[in-house]
Amino acid sequence: MKYDTVIGLEVHCELKTQTKCFCGCKNNFGDEPNSNCCPVCLGFPGALPVLNKKAVEYAVIAGLAFNCSINNESVFERKNYFYPDLSKAYQISQLEKPLCVNGYVEINVDGKPKKIRLNRIHLEEDAGKLIHDGIGGTVVDYNRGGVPLIEIVTEPDISSAEEAVAFLEALKNTIAYTGISDVKMEEGSLRCDVNLSVKPSDSVVLGTRTEMKNLNSFKAVYRAINYEQKRQIEEIEDGHKIVQETLRWDDNIGESKSMRSKEDSQDYRYFPDPDLLPVYISNEQIESLKNSIPKLPSELKQIYLGYGLSDYDASLLVESKAISDYFNEVLSYVNEPKIVANFIINEVLRKLKECNENKMKAQELSELVTLVAKKEISATAGKQVFEKMWETGKSANVLVEELGLKQVNNDDELLSYVVAAIQNNPQSVADYKSGKLSAIGFLVGQVMKASKGKANPQKVNEMLKAELEK
Amino acid sequence: MDYTKLSILELAKLLREGKVTSVELTKQVLAKIKEKEHLHALNSVMEEYALARASEVDQMFSEGKELPTLAGIPITIKDNINIKGFNTTCSSKFLENFVAPYSATIVENLEKNYAVIVGKNNMDEFAMGSSTENSAFYPCLNPRNEECVPGGSSGGSAAAVAADLGFASVGTDTGGSVRQPASLCGVVGLKPTYGLVSRYGIVAFASSLDQAGPLTKTVKDSAVMLNALAGHDAKEETSANVEKVDYMDSFTGSVKGVKIGLIKEFFGEGLDEEVKNAILDAANFYKSKGAEIVEISMPFVGSALACYYILSSAEAASNLSRFDGVKYGVSVDDPKNLNDLYLRNRSQGFGKEVKRRIMLGNYVLSSGYYDAYYKKAKKVQRLLVQQFADTFSKCDVILSPTSPTVAFKIGEKANDPLAMYLSDIYTVPVNIAELPAISIPCGLNKDNLPIGMQLIGKKFSEKTLFNVADVFETMKGEN
Fold it and tell me: Is the CB of residue B256 less than 8 Å from the CB of residue B221?
């Protein structure tokens, strides 16, 4: 039987505000344990939360970036449960009135666009971190406790591991562009839970779903989905029922294990937090936040296509904000999008795979691009110069001089090469004159060789034709 | 001379005239606290701290500095209010050894006014109760009759003021916890408008209802205390951002033309006859002074108690969840696992009434019951707010009993929670509607036990309440 997989994701993303969501403590990853804590985020008796307005703005920006409607009034609620990393034994979150609802993220499936709908984006606080000391004890670092977090919940629109990863990549990239989060999965600033069920393709009834946690990389998400859909199909084929449960993915052994079943599922006893006022956001505020968002990858791509770049090239350039920012900066010096794109895609990106630091300042690259654009050096020579610039840090102009790569455009000099080539290669000349026009290629090659690659090939071609037709 | 029976205003004068020093006052109060230790009005005494502060104030007085009215006056505060470096026990085993790492905003406010805090008052555990019998340490006795309860939950505060152990106290009032003990001990107790006095640093019982307020010997002293306590606090979102007023400007000495409402439903079953007569006497007194008495019906007011126990317990269950023993408080040495740790810490740390409220609160919030209880109670709350708004279109203040009875015997209601809850029947509607109300003594019953009357006002009408209460307090004796 054929089966369809139905997947919904819950993505948690820490916001890069200066301070925590409900107190003035620093929001900084990697500091000494329990150094960024106060009575509020430690849940000491009598302490009260005060909402960080910046966190609300960031969450709204996320909503706008993903085409959500923003609720003018939203409410914080308490999600009550006991766990040592949760200092108040409740998490301040949102349930009935979240900040953002009904958005979507567009991904590419087999070359076709597909919209993954978002149910909501809400703002909440992160919990602290349990650290097991390896000898049976557990300690808590509350630095992360109270850090603002958005939870992005999709509709069950995802049908495969590939789509899930494409969705996460698009999500991560867009968030990175907005600047509201570091979106680093390895530091936990981006986390993802997978809700998955399978059903026979001809059935309209959804199957029982499981929820998978502890997915710490896109690769883990990919593997876990493939594992879980296979497991569920096998269970059904064996005549078993799928149990609604929460699973924990173990990426080391590539298996999921049951954490708790539905019967043990917690009743979080949500209710509006009486310590916090409803959050009101006016349409003017929403508009002004909208205007503050930098151009997102989807918009930039359209602009780049307008420059005449191929879909493939444009997509590559918007895969990271650093790159598209760089591209835009080089363009601000020299308006040659195609040449710049070629250099970035073929040279810069290649170099960045070897070392993480971009050693070429935008202005420096623009000088090289200018030389190529003005045909002062050939494209081949351009690559050579780039290589040297990266190595030595010298400017393009200096290197062109040093390497003697300046393209020969001088008519007299070129003519002497052309005449020499005609004289030295009578056979090719005869071929050309007898109608075998391709013979001219050989002659151009000879000129290039004689000029050590510096002759302008196009010009050489023209001059050869003129001479041969005399 | 024994200064402990004087009012704050009287002492403020003497201090400025150099007739008494703050250190002398503080020493007298400390001695009296010792003498009356058996009342259990205090959980802890901060002798060294108090004397040091008192001598600082004396120094400033001797330098001729102009200081706030409260400067140098020894007072006590309820033991659910944090003072940095001192215990905050909430009269609970769970927090018996908890030392506050920071001070409440109102403590900072009192310190800015150079008040001398001498100790922390006994209370019902986590402010849950109406008799102070729920203190995990010892019940507090009523100084007017030591066989009786002082009321609660701020029973220690009321008893301290009544027994002259400090010239004022700060209590907290979630459903009547300042006013009811004030009434039972024969002192003045104010529950300010929700948001007027900062909650930051006060251990939360029910966040949407909690409000700290002063207990004093006189109405004017209550105004002095509110001047020090009130003010916007950026550390609390629900703190009211209203203009600072001087409550000492409240007093006109007249109630001419003031419309005083009597709520029909407040004079029904369960109200002690002597208490009822005292309130009606007060109404007559006001009438004789030119006020207009209006009879009003508030059919929904009877739902207030049920509404209160749902909302307050729901919030309490959540607020008290943080007491898990992981970071502070009671923690067993040999937990079998995490669940066992939570279970035993909380079982050992909390008393019976606290557990009862936690269970009730979790019940009304749990899935399947939330709509029927919590949501419905929120609806009733909105109706009550509306009904109070209608009522205040017909009158300026409401006059009612504070408590249906005078102080009852220790143990009398201890095993009957419902009877105990009914002590708050006239006070809880005020918290639910976020209104201000004051309880002042209005006579004694045949057993010489004090009777209290309550005046309820519109939001932020504390000045009106002070004035109307002051007229009664200062002129009733003349009749």
Answer: no
Q: What angle do CA B108, B113, B114 make, to 5 degrees?
A: 95
B203–A48: do the CB atoms touch at under 8 Å? no
Residues in chain B within 8 Å Cβ distance of A43: 322, 327
Same domain for A399 and A356: yes
Q: Domain boundary residue among A365, A383, A403?
A: A403
Average pLDDT, chain A: 92
Q: What is the mean pLDDT of the segment spanning B145-172?
A: 98
A49 part of contact set with chain B, CB < 8 Å: yes
DSSP state of A277: P
Mutate to test the interface with B, among A139, A271, A280 (most CBs of B within 10 A): A271
Q: Do B237 and A48 touch (CB under 8 A)?
A: yes
Is residue B460 a contact partner of residue B449, using CB atoms and an 8 Å limit?
no
Flag whether A246 is in a domain: yes
- In the set B32, B36, B78, B459, the catalytic residue is B78
B78 is catalytic: yes
Residue A263's pLDDT is 67
Which B residues 298-317 touch A at CB under 8 Å?
Answer: 314-315, 317
Residues A302 and A347 occupy one common structural domain: yes
| CB nearest A50 (choices: B201, B204, B237) | B237
pLDDT digits (tens, 9 = 90+) for A314-371: 999 998 888 999 999 999 999 999 999 999 999 999 988 888 788 889 999 999 999 9
Q: Are the Cβ atoms of A87 and B237 closer than 8 angstroms? A: no
pTM: 0.91
* CB-neighbour burial class of residue B234 (10 A; exposed 0-12, middle 13-18, buried 19+): exposed
CB contact under 8 A, B327 and A269: no
Cα–Cα distance measured from residue A56 to residue A60, given in angstroms and rounded to the nearest whole number: 6
Chain segment A204-248, per-residue pLDDT in tens: 999 999 999 989 899 999 999 999 999 999 999 999 999 999 999
Active site residue B256: no
CA distance A51 to chain B (A): 8
Residue A124 lies in a domain: yes
Residue A198 structural domain? 3-284
Torsion of CA A154, A159, A162, A168, to 10 degrees: 0
For residues B96-101, average pLDDT: 97
Chain B CB contacts of A84 below 8 Å:
324, 326, 338
Domains located in chain B, CATH noted = 1-479 (3.90.1300.10)
Asked if residue A212 and residue A172 are part of one domain, the reply reads yes
Are A314 and A446 part of one and the same domain?
no
Tell me the average pLDDT across B150-161: 98
A105-126 pLDDT, tens digit per residue, is: 999 888 889 999 999 999 999 9
Phi, psi of B126 (to 5 degrees): 55, 25
Kind of pairing, strands B168-173 and B74-78?
Answer: parallel
Co-location of A272 and A322 in the same domain: no
**CATH number of the domain bearing residue A459:** 1.10.10.410
Report the number of distinct structural domains present in chain A.
3
Residues A315 and A422 in one domain: no
Instruction: Give per-residue pLDDT as tens, A248-286.
Output: 999 999 999 998 877 677 899 999 999 999 999 999 999
Chain A with chain B: Cβ pairs closer than 8 A: 96
Q: Which of B208, B324, B370 sits opposite A274 (nearest CB)?
A: B208
pLDDT in tens, A411-457: 788 888 888 888 898 888 888 888 888 888 888 888 888 887 778 87
Tokens of A426: 């009578």
Q: Which residue in A has a C-alpha nearest to residue B363's C-alpha?
A: A269
Which residues, listed in sequence order, are joined to residue B215 by a DSSP beta bridge?
B169, B189
Burial track A318-333 (b if 16+ CB lie within 10 A, e otherwise): bebbebbebbbebbeb
**DSSP SS3 for B283:** helix
Percentage above 70 pLDDT, chain B: 99
A137 at B interface, C-beta within 8 A: no
Q: Which residue of B has its CA nearest to A90?
A: B318
Inter-chain residue contact B342 with A82, CB threshold 8 Å: yes
Active-site annotation holds for B222:
no
pLDDT at B232: 97
Nearest to A294 by CA among A173, A189, A151, A187: A173
pLDDT at residue B479 greater than cutoff 50:
no
Are A137 and A113 in a shared domain? Answer: yes
